[in-house]
Amino acid sequence: MPSEPEIALGRVTPALRHESLFSERAANIKQSAVRDVFDLSLDPSLVSLAGGNPYLQSLPLDKLGAMASELIIEHGMTALQYGGGQGTPELRAQICEVMAEEGILDADPANIVVTTGSQSAQDVACKVFCDPGDTILCEDPTYVGALNTFEAYQARVEPIPTDEHGMIPAELAKRIAELRAAGATIKLLYTIPNFNNPSGITLCAERRPQIMEICREANILVLEDNPYGMLRYTGDPILPLRADYPDDVIYMGSFSKILAPGLRIGWALVPEHLQRRFYLASEAVTLCPPTFNQMLISEYLKHHDWRGQIASYRDLYAGRCAGMLDSLAEFMPESVSWTRPEGGFFVWVTLPEGIDTYPLLAKAIDAGVVFIPGAAFSPADTPSNKLRLAFSAISADKIHEGVRRLAPVLREAIEA
Ligand code: PMP
């Protein structure tokens, strides 16, 4: 509160007056480290290996433009109107077809809630399940946007150790027991089983039922976040957790990586017994997901070879992923290692123990390249000897140049 002398001196700015009005929750809302670095991606003198943007140049823009214009001219009264809070029935039915591609064959459109990107599905899940102080388990490392959401809801976030096959079931079981013994209320396990952001790692098939059984036994609901699942470049597809555990998983999907993130359309497939609360909480935030965008996606799915489009994205990103891995092999010092993703957008690079990659970012920018320091992907920004490189948005040539610029910065830190 401003003091009386301050008021008398007329020094009370609106910012000062309003400071005391913030909720406790607002103190936990922070700017994403990825956002900070994102703006640098626009500087043409820098090679950005930071932002995991999808490459949109191969979209059929003429076709989308014609569909958009026809929608407004022929169906404007519906397309520009409010719609149902759960999403249009047509798109929900089509989303079931999209999920069937990944092996979810029993989805009922009645249990789908269309959301403003899958980001808002994460938010709704927290709203429905988390009281301040409740615990959410996640992979170590995990998606920074999810961490920001969980922290904004004042959840305690507990990262579970992972290896090259994903979350380690024994570590999960151990941590649940320890947390419960310490009085924690564990509500959710958030997981990105395919091509994790940031690590690129996939949870292997053997571990999937193990993780699910541990969670079911402990009465922990699983949030399965799968925006990259259809972008597999090598290896055999693995069934989503949701496929075999329909009552225990909220599955989150998105059109952001298989079509366009600017449309901001994602979804949650929610177990029937949870669906109503989830949908009402989502409706309370947005009233309804954007009608026009949903109808445009419906038209696209109806009239365009979307499976072919995804296949062409797969080829494109597979080439860039290979370019990234080759460039790392060419330039990186011997003591540096990295993951070999089978899909998705990211490679996770590990430096020798004890080197914090955060201070290296400024040096990398001086050298003309941008990355995301590993600290961004764990709660409390714990110092990390890792960093994330994205290969989705730029050509293999640029990736090569970016890695070439990055290597001496890392070498200098290692040799210091
Ligand atoms: N989950 C993960 C793992 C992501 O990487 C992203 C976006 N980068 C999202 C969710 C959010 O996606 P959307 O655009 O659907 O909100």
From TrEMBL:
SUPFAM superfamilies: PLP-dependent transferases. This is DNA-binding transcriptional MocR family regulator. Pfam families: Aminotran_1_2. PANTHER family: AMINOTRANSFERASE (PTHR42790), KYNURENINE_ALPHA-AMINOADIPATE AMINOTRANSFERASE, MITOCHONDRIAL (PTHR42790:SF19). The keyword Hydrolase does not apply. InterPro entries: Aminotransferase_I/II_large, Class-I_PLP-dep_aminotransf, PyrdxlP-dep_Trfase, PyrdxlP-dep_Trfase_major, PyrdxlP-dep_Trfase_small. Residues 55-406 form the Aminotransferase class I/classII large domain. Belongs to the class-I pyridoxal-phosphate-dependent aminotransferase family. GO terms for biological process: alpha-amino acid metabolic process. Keywords: Aminotransferase, DNA-binding, Pyridoxal phosphate, Transferase. The keyword DNA-binding applies.
